[in-house]
Design goal:
about 450 residues, Rossmann fold, 3 domains, 18 helices, binds nicotinamide-adenine-dinucleotide, binds uridine-5'-diphosphate-glucuronic acid, UDPglc_DH_euk, UDP-glucose 6-dehydrogenase, NAD binding
Amino acid sequence: MSITKICCIGAGYVGGPTMAVIAQKCPDIQVTVVDLNEERIAQWNNPDVEKIPIYEPGLSEIVANTRGKNLFFSTEVDKAIDEAQMIFISVNTPTKTYGSGKGMAADLKYIELCARQIARVAKNDKIVVEKSTLPVRTAEAIKSILDHTGNGVQFQILSNPEFLAEGTAVQDLLNPDRVLIGGDTTPEGEAAIQSLVNIYSNWVSKDKILTTNVWSSELSKLTANAFLAQRVSSINAISELCEKTGADVNEVARAIGMDSRIGPKFLKSSVGFGGSCFQKDILNLVYIAKTFGLREVADYWEQVILMNDHQKRRFANKIVQTLYNTVADKKICFLGWAFKKDTNDTRESAAIYVARDLVSEQANIAVFDPKVEEYQIQSDLDYLNVSERSKKRVTSYENPYDACHSAHAIAVLTEWDEFRDYDWQLIYKNMQKPAFIFDGRNLLDGKKLTEIGFVYKSIGS
Ligand code: NAD
Ligand code: UGA
């Protein structure tokens, strides 16, 4: 089938950037991104393209070039489903917060709603593409819903997980390491796979487009995230040992990363990984393993999460211990709140957990993040059930120098490049003495800061 109209359900961090790139690379395809969230769609349609809801380097330029030509954002979900030959499901799949599997399994209620809506609306054959990250064998459930419409419409279900990382989404989409497409091995399934291969072939070389069966594709996505997160937890585990032994985790990471079998990426020790997916996807993997009675498999992967929780807690504890075992009413400046640089996304950011631990010790926290706004910080604290009283201890600043002014300590929670270039001499002058820096990202020049007079503490040395 030659595709001329695509609908994507879910205008989030994946749906928005992915569809913008498809629209740019396939000018003959009309791409409509739909969402129930009216405010989000209004933001995507904001005439000032710098105000689209997601900050990603290079994204606003692509949206400016395609929006209104072959890229549309709309709340008319039924209409977009009806018109499209291919429908991407790109809705959120958070960890369940209720019922069986609470705290572990993926909540598939949004996926099921999409499947039911497609089943209700579709009047002609469609290809449905799972773009969201899903437990292995979800396609079976989607198919079962779609196959019971009774109106003779035929559906093909493909799995096409997304591997982009936030902060580099556009680059990752333009130059992916691979595109993975899983589908049925029937002639109809293979034809559907080919339709999607044809779309990606507009800019991705054929040798990077991998086709598999549906289950391998679904499971590969969870596995990729589990392996990536496991590397971070592994190096973070070593960071604690480094602190006890005089080894330096940056040197260790460099030394092992030069082994081509290990490789240098994802070995940056930190305050702990965050983001909407690593934790949720590993918990989901653990849950699936448990469901099949695979206790050892489940325990193995769960350890990645436990190590990460430990690393976040350890960072907060270190601040308290170093500040003479009390942070009560002391001002601690957080540089960064996002879960990594170059994104305004704060989901599961380590900063939230460290803040929670410090306000429970009655610290006052002054946050500066170049892309995160005050309301977001407060709502992140709500998510961790931080009390109203404690929340008042966390304030957000528009300017890093004001945030650091008269602070007892600075904690670097996100690796924003601009932090390196601040006037550290001036910051030092205006802080309480001794002036401490806890660099949760090993970002700053410790030697230079020590020369200025700071007490500089990094991770893993
Ligand atoms: P998101 O929360 O940013 O966006 C999801 C959107 O779907 C929301 O705007 C929500 O309103 C909308 N939605 C939910 N149900 C809907 C429905 N029935 N009809 C219409 N709209 C609906 O989520 P995200 O970060 O884009 O993630 C989406 C999926 O992609 C998840 O499964 C995630 O695991 C996966 N993923 C995310 C990333 C990432 O970097 N964020 C990367 C790869 C994969
Ligand atoms: C991650 C994966 O990298 C993507 O391939 C995947 O598509 C995505 O999850 C997803 O499924 O959502 P993302 O979470 O956006 O992408 O960002 P990463 O670059 O993977 O960083 C995740 C977290 O790990 C961040 O908090 C980051 O600071 C931390 N990290 C990463 C480290 O602490 N050290 C490292 O060496 C690398």
